[in-house]
Design a protein that fits this description.
367 residues, alpha+beta, 8-stranded mixed sheet, two-stranded antiparallel sheet, 21% strand, elongated
Amino acid sequence: MLVAYGPDGRPLVAEEASLTELQRWSHERLLHCPNCRGIVHVRGGPEKRTQLHFAHQKGECAWSTESESVRHMRGKVVLAQWLREQFPRATVTLEERLPEPNRIADIFMQHPDGRRWALEFQCAPLDLAEWQHRHNAYRQAGIIDTWIIGNNRREKQEAFIEAVLAAAREIMFLDPLLTPPHIWLRWLLSASVVQEWQRTTTRMPLVEGRVGRLGYAASLIGRLYDVALDEEARLVHPARSSMEKRLHLLQTMAGASSLVETLLTAYLRDSVGEEALRVVILPLMRAYIRDPDLLRRYNYGRGAGEQPPDEEDRRRVHKACAWLASLAQRGYAPITVQTLVKELPFVGPYAAFARYAEMLLAIASPA
């Protein structure tokens, strides 16, 4: 366990107290279990290369968690610190015994406005019925429970992991033994969303395949401190938020009746950057809006039907090709412009603009 009562009857967190004092109090039998009030002793520490913690003599306490792994103990410390940095006004405690729902929460957080959260860091197998019992007990007590899973269970097909994913629509795996701690964030996607992403963009998360009957799972790998909890204890990752924003923009653009510059700018800003938008994409878009039929009439110099392109169309196309060539002077070589054009979404009226840009690049390219 990571928490014990000290000589003054107040809780002590092993890693937050003086090791010298802990060892002295342990020798004097002044440390007590917060659950059964039995005597505990300090164990581990840097010299022994294990997590500093408290331990009973074997079999002393029915609440004892001393068989827990180093991963589990370290994870609780890491998660508590992660929460304290996000919510400095909240009270964050380790191994808090809660009369309702009669459980010891790995990490418990009391917000100033009365909200109560419990984080459980699960590194061992857990029976589905037991998880449902704990989850329901927390919710009935008015406590939001968030389950973080040890990375040692990341590849396991376990019913309780699927149940957590079904309840929260997301789940996070944590390796607290790495420096900095690493996470694998997994969340659910519908089949239609996966198809939309695959059809319209090259920028999408890793799709892991189906998760039972729940749908598809997407995942991101990163560091723990890339992730935060929102006001409702939901996991927030900036890369995931960006992807979901882009998807919403795609869906809006797909249903649009005409091109909207602000929508395209919002969709492309993160992937191509402000300068590329200003120098390459938006001038192309404005030229297209002025005369969307120009390149079809020109038709690679052959004209449309039996009507050859007139001199004005030829002049305008040659001027556009010269403009493309001039972009190289500003750092946008033809291959770079081609890469930018590939980011254009093939949805709604934007698909015609993307084809227009591709045709102009093909006309401007040397044979």
